[in-house]
Structures are given as C-alpha cells and as structure tokens.
Amino acid sequence: MFLTELKTHIRRAQLKSVLSVNKELILLYWKIGKDILTNQETLGWGAKDIDQLSQDLRTEFPDMKGFSVRNLKYMQAFAAAYPEEEFVQQVAAQLPWFHLCVIITRIKDTEERLFYLKKTIEHGWSRNILVHQIESGLHLREGTSTTNFALTLPPPQSDLAHQTLKDPYIFDFLTLSEEVQEMDLENALISHIQDFFLELGVGFAYLGRQYHLSIGDQDFYLDLLFYHTKLHCYVVIELKAHEFKPEYAGKLNFYLSAVDDLIRQDGDNPTIGILLCREKNKAIAEYVLRDIQKPMGVSEYQLTRALSEELKGRLPCVEEIEKVIEEVEITTSVVPKCSIEIKAFNSGEMSKKENSPDNHSPDQT
C-alpha cells in the first residue's frame, strides 16, 4: 500500500514537472514568434533575416534544438494565430508543441482552431488522433445528429447528450462493401473495437453485442449495448444497413423501455437510443422523433470518408506531412524524455506503441 501510494505521488510529480517545462517552452516559442512578427512590421524582416536568426541561435545555443528555420516559421505562425499572451499561458501552453503546429498549420479559421485545441486538452488526444479528428471534420459532425433530446431529457443532460452524437459517423477503418448487411457491419465494428470507440467518442463503455433480453416469454437481442460514463446512462445502438424507416424508431423505443425497466439502476439517467442508418431523410426522422417519449437520435454512417472540397484543399498530402514531421526540431535538452499516458476513452488505453517515446519523438515537449 505504501509503495503504491509513493509511486503515484512520484508519477504525479513527474507529470507536473513535464507540464511545467512544456509551458515554459511554449511561452518561449511564442515570444520568439512575437519578436519575429514585430521585426517584420518595424524593420521589414524577410526570409533571409529568419535564416540568419536561425543560424545565430544555433551558434549561441549549440546544445539546444528547435531553432531550425522551419520551426522559427512555426513560432511566427503560432504568435500570429494567438496574439494574446494570457490565452497562450492559460490554454495553448497545455498542449505539446507539435500538437499546436498541427492545429495552426492545418486550420485557418479561429473558431475551428479553438474547437480542436479545447477538444485535445479535454480528451488528451495523441498527435495521430488529433490529425485523424481534423481530417474527419469532427467540428462539422459533432452535435449534428437528429434527436429528440431537448424534449425528452432535462438540461444540461440534453445538451451534453446532443453533443455526444455525431452525424455522420465515419467507419472508414472497415473494409466492407457499400452493400454490407447489418450483421456483417456489427461483426466488423466489434473486431475493430478501438477504432469504433475512437469514432464514438469519450465515455462509451462496451457491455455487449446481441445483448439478450427476455420479455413476455420471448427473446429479444440488442445490436450493441453501452454505458456512458459522462451521461450516466445506458446507450442502445441499433445498426441498419439501409435508409431510415419510421418503424425502426418504434422498435428502438421498445428496447429503451425494456432496458430502463430490466437493467437500469437507481442513479442511472434514462437510457438513450442511437439508430445508425446507411441514409436518412432528416425531415422524416424529425417527424418520427417528435412524439417518441424516449431519448433517441438518428445518424447516418459512412464506410468511406467524404471530405468537403474546402477541407480537402487545406490538408497536405501524406508526403508533405512526413516531411514536416521529419524536419520539425523540438527542444530535447530542456525536456526529459517522458511519455505521458492519457486514456483516450473509458473502454481501454491507447496502445503502448502509439504512446511510446520513439513513436512520438516530436511530442516530447
């Protein structure tokens, strides 16, 4: 017991130390970027001046990395994106440097940048997950599902539940044809459970597939049953291989009543249902859900990622991403090589390989 508590205290101290050093590093980079911007405005600095600054800093601080021309330009872009030092200290400095580089180079809109910055802090996304969420256009999909939560759940739970759902869900990690059947889709999702959890979002705890309920001497089977640790409720997900039909909501409503009666415990909020359909007519879905008494949402799913033309134009190709990763230099002499493990979702931890220092050397800030 004593040793366990001591280890916990040591790890907390290590984490605080790394975060403190990271904050100082981010502030240093921001101030350098701010100075570059000031000199550009007052002295007419150009590319050659940044080249010279890089050379001078490398000569003066030979044991420090992070002063390449490319990284100085990232600092400049960082300071331009976040001109207020208070915001940098309180918010931006909570992220590793390369996470910030990803956000400021891939996203131009201020509100969109803030969305991904806050989400990364909230959920502890790795760099790879952050890139994935940007590429999938999470800010356009989150909280867009057709639901009746405002009518069936009290605030603020209704707002939180609405933000929990996406539309569409993207299952591009599955190698399935467009004509997939419901059982094939269910099997594939469970065999790729970690990717499935990533797309569902934080808080979902998996309880079972084809979950058996015995009602009136008859057997019924829920496609997927989860418990949501933030909403404090059971979540029933029904998979449909075709376009949404009104009768689907009636069957799910029956399942929700059964779960509330047979499984739900004291302290649990009302069970939520999610219908995942290949397609949906939003107007029909809204009419159907209007008079349903149980909280329910209807979303589409896609087996391939369909990005908007605007988003496509903002995303670099794979070769460009790899080149940036290779060339970005981060200060390693200041920050100890320490891996910070953060659970991405309640159902399990990210793989050790993804969180290893070797796999995330640009993130060690």
TrEMBL record:
Transmembrane segments: none annotated. Residues 5-141 form the YhcG N-terminal domain. Residues 163-316 form the YhcG PDDEXK nuclease domain. It comes from the Archaea. It holds the Pfam family DUF1016_N. One of its GO terms (molecular function) is nucleic acid binding. This is DUF1016 domain-containing protein.
